[in-house]
Amino acid sequence: MMPIELSDKDLEDNGSFHKEEFERIQSIFEMYATSDEMLMQPGQAYFITKAGQSFSSRVKYELLPLIREYLDNGFLSSAADQFNQFFVDEINEPIYL
Q1: Whole-number Cα distances in Å, 85 to 20, 64, 68, 80, 95
Q2: Which residues are CB-contacts of 26 (< 8 A; sequence separation ≥ 6)?
């Protein structure tokens, strides 16, 4: 099952779905991933925050380590520059320091 875009109305407890960031990651996968790598696309839960929760901390501590692990294991290597730019834009931190 592929990740799907949610609306804030779909969420409980005043949660927020970070649509723009979800679409950026989704487009990187669509452009660069093989059919097997498409199955590794982060699910929509990575792009949901609860009221008062920082999305940048979710990116830094959950999404960045996941993508780094994929790259370290040789997956999605053709998308490394695009992923790196995503993290620089979002949290001002490259994938590798």
Answers
A1: 15, 12, 13, 9, 9
A2: 3, 41
Helix (H, G, I), strand (E, B) or coil at 1: coil
Task: Give whole-number Cα distances, 28 to 13, 18, 52, 73, 81, in Å.
Answer: 30, 16, 28, 18, 10
Tokens of 84: 């790196």
Q: Is 86 helix (H, G, I), strand (E, B) or coil?
A: helix
- What is the pTM for the complete model shown? 0.91
Q: How many CB atoms lie within 10 A of CB 15?
A: 14
- Radius of gyration over alpha carbons of the chain, in Å? 13
Confidence of residue 88 (pLDDT cuts 50, 70, 90): very high
